[in-house]
Amino acid sequence: MTALLVWLAVTGILVGVLWLAYRTPPAIAVTRDVPGRAFQGSRVPLGVQVTLRSRLPLRFTLDDPTPRAVVPDMPVTLVGAGIGEVAVEFQTMLDLNRRGVHAWPGATLRWADPLGLFWHAVAVPAPHSVLVYPGTHGLVLPELLRPLLSEGGLTRRLGLDDPLGQRGVGEYVPGDPPGRVHWRLTARTGTLTVRDPERTAASSVTVYVDTGSGTDMSLESAVRLAASMVQEAVALELPVAVALPGSVSPVGTGAAAVQGALYLLARAALVPGEPSIPPTRAGGNLFILTIRPSAALITQAMRARAHASRVVIVALPDGYYLEPGESPRRQWAGLPDAVRDLERQAGALAGAGILVYILRGNQSVLQLGT
Q1: Residue 227, pLDDT score
Q2: Residue 286, helix vs strand vs coil
Q3: Is 188:337 a contact under the CB 8 Å cutoff?
Q4: 95 close to 71: Cβ distance less than 8 angstroms
Q5: What are the start-end ranges of the H helices in 267-336?
Q6: CA–CA dist 111, 23 (Å, integer)
Q7: Helix, strand, coil in percent for the chain, rounding step 5
Q8: pLDDT tens digits, 77-125
Q9: Whole-angstrom Cα distance, residue 224 to residue 221?
Q10: Looking at residues 145-151, what average pLDDT do you find?
Q11: How far apart are CA 28 and CA 110, in angstroms?
Q12: Distance CA 268, CA 230 (A)
């Protein structure tokens, strides 16, 4: 009986020592090898390296869960054992399913003695993020809309007045600015005459996404359309920018400007409220993408027209707009009242230099109506 007690005491002491010895976590370093930015829908490689340093022999498991919108082919779990410095590497592929800036949570380390009697766990801070740009699609635009993206020479109808170019003169019409009156010719002919200046084409493209209405699905469509327009502008070597309510990316043609525009689109989210179109580059084309055009948005567009060469309102009715290649779906309701109101105002807005396009289904991407 005494020998048994002695054996139990020795065993208990050994177990206690073992428990105490492995309470302190080993030194650990976690390194992730993954592209910092990529486009939605793409697949990218992921490499995870774990290095442990311990003076005692141990076994360990590291779980490194990915963000919910970043799906690996297999769970990121690393298993190893040894003494001293132990290195383990893990390789897999990631599917980037949703745009945004996705914060990578920290990993969890579990370790134990070689016998696996006592397991301990500790959170391993490993801050990381993956920037997923919105996906793009083949931009199919009608012949009336495509020229609005591109540079051009002088145009007779749209754009800003060119003080150095004059197309001709004409008789004064009520509403003509007094600054256009040709006083010398008026004095000679006795008829009030005004100059008819040339107008210059746009020098840049700004795409504004209205995030104050719609659904998550319709916002995704608007963001993808905006990203596709950015891509088209870059292909045409046009300075491009993206605007959201209260913010705008830098205008330019370089990589920094394009990344800034895509970064803003990646972070776009529905924020119910009044639209707020920030000041854009003078003389440029302004595209306004909206799900439900409100009266406040139209007012903002008219204000923006004061310094923009052209303003184009593109409405994507909820449930009616289909992206190129998307399968048609049956609709049970008519156009929203806000869109019908915009249609009725299209003629008056065109007179003020604001064009209106309503996107309806796949065919409307080929031929839009006003």
Answers
A1: 92
A2: strand
A3: no
A4: yes
A5: 295-304
A6: 9
A7: 25, 35, 40
A8: 988 888 888 899 999 999 999 999 998 888 999 988 887 777 888 898 8
A9: 5
A10: 58
A11: 11
A12: 15
